[in-house]
Amino acid sequence: MSLWHHPKKSWSCPSPAGDWELMDFFESYLECCDTSPQETHFCRSCDKNFVEDLANPDMLKKHLQDEHHFTECHHNKIFTPELFSLHLANTHHVGFNYVGSFATLCQKDERPPALMIWPKGG
Which pTM value belongs to this model? Predict the structure, then answer.
């Protein structure tokens, strides 16, 4: 009954091929070295670093596919944050430190399955 009175939340896995930007999965920072600072990307899911010279978009996509299997996920929606967090950790190898933040990014408000219309005068 709460479905009619409160909007439901759902969680869906991201897809690099979908509405997500590649940099939603990665963060970048400048790493100082002997010659000059280099931009380094790190995967938010597993904290693996990618130096800018080697980190082209195809390589980052390959990392998401090979290591985290986001392109292979067949779950449409999960309706509890706990189950979604377990799914991220077990299926996509998302680290414990990032599961909560990642789940928040994947959260959506669901619409009720039908609109209840009451007859006039009834």
Answer: 0.71
